[in-house]
Amino acid sequence: MIIVMAPNSTQADLDNVISKVKSQGLDVHLSQGTSRTIVGVIGDKAAIGQLEMQHLSGVEKTVRITEKYKLVSREFKRNNTVINVGGVEIGGSKPIVMAGPCAVESMEQLMESATAVAKAGAQFLRGGAFKPRTSPYDFQGLAEQGLKMLREAADANGLKVVTEVVDQRSIETVASYADVLQIGARNMQNFQLLKEVGRAGKPVMLKRGLCATIKEWLNAAEYIMSEGCDDVIFCERGIRTYETYTRNTLDLSAVAAIKELSHLPIVVDPSHGTGRRSMVRPMAIAAIAAGADGLIIEVHPHPEVALSDGEQSLTPADFEEVMADIKRVASLLRGED
Amino acid sequence: MIIVMAPNSTQADLDNVISKVKSQGLDVHLSQGTSRTIVGVIGDKAAIGQLEMQHLSGVEKTVRITEKYKLVSREFKRNNTVINVGGVEIGGSKPIVMAGPCAVESMEQLMESATAVAKAGAQFLRGGAFKPRTSPYDFQGLAEQGLKMLREAADANGLKVVTEVVDQRSIETVASYADVLQIGARNMQNFQLLKEVGRAGKPVMLKRGLCATIKEWLNAAEYIMSEGCDDVIFCERGIRTYETYTRNTLDLSAVAAIKELSHLPIVVDPSHGTGRRSMVRPMAIAAIAAGADGLIIEVHPHPEVALSDGEQSLTPADFEEVMADIKRVASLLRGED
Amino acid sequence: MIIVMAPNSTQADLDNVISKVKSQGLDVHLSQGTSRTIVGVIGDKAAIGQLEMQHLSGVEKTVRITEKYKLVSREFKRNNTVINVGGVEIGGSKPIVMAGPCAVESMEQLMESATAVAKAGAQFLRGGAFKPRTSPYDFQGLAEQGLKMLREAADANGLKVVTEVVDQRSIETVASYADVLQIGARNMQNFQLLKEVGRAGKPVMLKRGLCATIKEWLNAAEYIMSEGCDDVIFCERGIRTYETYTRNTLDLSAVAAIKELSHLPIVVDPSHGTGRRSMVRPMAIAAIAAGADGLIIEVHPHPEVALSDGEQSLTPADFEEVMADIKRVASLLRGED
Amino acid sequence: MIIVMAPNSTQADLDNVISKVKSQGLDVHLSQGTSRTIVGVIGDKAAIGQLEMQHLSGVEKTVRITEKYKLVSREFKRNNTVINVGGVEIGGSKPIVMAGPCAVESMEQLMESATAVAKAGAQFLRGGAFKPRTSPYDFQGLAEQGLKMLREAADANGLKVVTEVVDQRSIETVASYADVLQIGARNMQNFQLLKEVGRAGKPVMLKRGLCATIKEWLNAAEYIMSEGCDDVIFCERGIRTYETYTRNTLDLSAVAAIKELSHLPIVVDPSHGTGRRSMVRPMAIAAIAAGADGLIIEVHPHPEVALSDGEQSLTPADFEEVMADIKRVASLLRGED
């Protein structure tokens, strides 16, 4: 940490700053410029992480040099983490695809979806059994009945299941049916949920919060890893901006950022990221080109009757085309066959 | 709801739209412009609320005319709701003030804070016993021990207690000590928490999410009210924007917006809203001038040793000055003595 | 400037950094932490301002300690600047009010507006003769004819004129009619216009850009001052955020920020800042309470027939009420009569 | 346009609305719902475009069905516009690349850059002779001397020149040296500049404003086209969000949006869009994958001594790699060789 003293700060202010730093077992290194005195803090990284100096008299600003997250960082682990989900690798050389309807509506709808996405080459079936909705009067999901359908439809088609956990009380239930537990954007900083899901013994896919910075997202993943879960997958799903043409602004540079800062894999959700069916294909291809480890795409056998998010769901036929494009781009850029 | 058909839509598209609307027991009203056909949907508001038409073939866009929230709306209840918390009225003619440290750190710190804020005229003691922190390595609060201290310090000074609930598992515990339950910004769309807190039998103060729209905030309050809680207090605490000089951008126009759209009271948090001690006073006065029903302000007897948010905490002496200003402005604008 | 070297940087990287700093006549101060080497740059502030080090090999990040603006800063001039516009003081003890229609439409409309706002106590007549509009097909203003009307209506009512300059070619013309030249939000970083308007010999009111940071706004004012104009007035008019209920998000904390960082006066525009007639009054009062030196408010004798921005214009009767409130609050907070 | 009447509006309000619409030569179509009356406006699109109804008494909101821009729209012209710049096609089957330094610094620097980018396959030399800079004390460019160097370096290497016009007074000068005139992000709504540049007889590349919506961007292009220029190229260069890790948030979904709404070509600037050298390559490839017609990339022979934006400039060697990737992806997705 670097502490910049204000131009009008006193020697007493400076002495107080130094004294507080030393009281934490840390040391200082002073630098006297023409208009400012700079105090560099030296010592144990964890102790520096705890230090709060901004509010001391005479302090103009503080600059953190090292981040608080550790386990998720590329500094901590140089090589990419590859997560093995019952034989399917996330973060390996081939991008994976999670697909299915926004919400589980019926066994028929789900089975039709699962058959279609499996046939097109997806590895995971997605679908919400518990739905976080803006209004209490919107469809809230089929709950455990929906989880059973997901498991059955996935098993029948050789797929894995990824589905959302919306509260602490249902983690165990969801974990008993799902292969990967999803934390939704609205819960990215629901820290109690992050901690408990980190102890559930399953890989966790952590969606980026609606207005979360890259650093906050990494810290949220650190909550999960610090409870013993090594298998965290980031999911970029668009951030909230002033633009209204798209539902969110899909931030593909987040893929590059996560690859620089972390060893964990990242997938992209072009369906929520754009909110428009016509944009799913170009953004899916672009995500793979940007280096994403996979995609999560909404596919509904009959988008026109979907109970939620029909406007961003692909038909099975559209999805097949997207899958073909993805395979070609991935093969070209990563030398895969 | 109004459905705008695309210029290149077909008669079959239109027939399909009409048929779907009618299948929900609703009726349509057609309007043929020079370049667009417009379909107005007529009928039961709740049924229209469920209607999803955006994804149908030939539909260019849909416009919702009525909002999904109801119980929180000014249309539903014309008169301002006044919440009585053990004799203290929130939403009445006098603004109320909640004050105290960001986090409960020790009995000594808390008692000193409580005595100071009570003396200056505050009605509520604030302080976090459970702290939602960006990093798992930051101070997470004293938990139930902190709640006990809050109750004791408040009682000793004739204050009420407002404190945050961060998860479902601790609602009952928090409710047994607190007078008002606070839902933090990061949990504004933690819908399971909203539902359960709505059944806890205590007034709830709902902070605005970091990037929540006014409408989403109203819907979040609707979750609480729909579970039987009539006493919801909004709290504007700044929104996330591109500006970095302030911690958040305090949106005082939200006070006017909530007063237009809802009958519920609203308080303002200038401490988190600005993140800078020097800005708390001007923004506190401005909030009251804008029509807020109260304020929540961080006060710490010794901000320089605070475990969190010291840079935005007032000293007791600063706080007394702010209280004097607030009283003068409130008295002037509302004819109070 | 502080330069933070990356953990994997080499001695050669460090030598190169030091050598580049020294080649600019500056000196360095090294600080070796446990995981990072920090290079403090010492010397002439202007030379440091020119330094670009971020792109050197081995540099993790750089932190600027001093800002590039100088003339506008509170460090440069401690006392508030009071601008005298033909006897009317901006930045003095009494808040001033600029009022009138969005656009000049006709002599009749303008005279009626001017009479009304003068009667209610405003000091300035506002009105656009050149209108920057999103679409080329919207009303673009009456140009010089409008300027003549502004001057005549203002003179007949003892008012000063503030009006917008939209391009370099019309500065001289506008300056020959107006008392204060306004730079609109969309031109805040039209640097050539800033420079030329700084040489026009008139006070300049600089609106904040739609997504300008406080620091960028100060730098824009520095462009004007560096050309010899001492009389710059900031105008907060709302920033662009994700919120759609209001036209912009009025950032009243900008008033406190400008007061901290600069000696120049600041006024607030609650009309554009909210875009809603019903919000103008509460935000106007709040702005004065927050410490603003004045207001600029849209008033139209017949908002329902206005050629632009009618939805945010007050009627003369509404305006009189706002003026009464403003006077009471200003009088209370500043001890004015 | 659709006009939604407020629930408490009167028959007189409705009569007034109808009367105003009819006074413009337009007609209405009434629709009576259970809680709202809806007024559809029918008639000439241009006349409807001029209509302002929001401020009328009893009006809750208005919804525009048709946009104000026309010439730029896909509705107006179905086929993609291909712009021929002296034999180089923009918007055709092959993506084009514009490359070179941020600012023209010297003949040597420029010639070295031009030779390198031409060798790697770029078609355009970029470089700023007039630089819009946040601070008046930053390097402002070499002006006409820089333009001469650009022309000479481009001609010597068989390249076209694209460079920025920053004000009305230098349009003619810039047009006499450049092949394509660039409007920078800060001038996207400098409407006088847009109009004059539209009459300059050269193709115009219009960068997206820092916080411009897609619709505002289209309207800005309409300003240029409405003055007689048919050759407008959009350039996505990142938008301003709350994220600080990247300089801007590159919005690749804008590529898909422009392709849907307009017939004009669009290029992407991954250098300004990310502000980080390490992210240029993945975002460049992703942009082409998303369907962009080209790229504009900062290349500097010696980024470590660049006078501006060195941290986002590629070396010639990096650039060659990016070009190879781009060609492979373009060839794969568009069947080009």
TrEMBL record, chains A, B, C, D:
UniProt key word Transferase: yes
A GO MF label: aldehyde-lyase activity
Protein's recorded name: 3-deoxy-7-phosphoheptulonate synthase
Gene Ontology biological process: aromatic amino acid family biosynthetic process
Gene3D superfamilies: Aldolase class I, Phospho-2-dehydro-3-deoxyheptonate aldolase, domain 1
First-tier enzyme category under EC: transferase
Entry's EC annotation: 2.5.1.54
Source organism: Anaerovibrio slackiae
SUPFAM superfamilies reported for this sequence: Aldolase
Keywords attached to this entry: Transferase
Domain DAHP synthetase I/KDSA stretches: 87-324
Domain DAHP synthase ferredoxin-like: 1-67
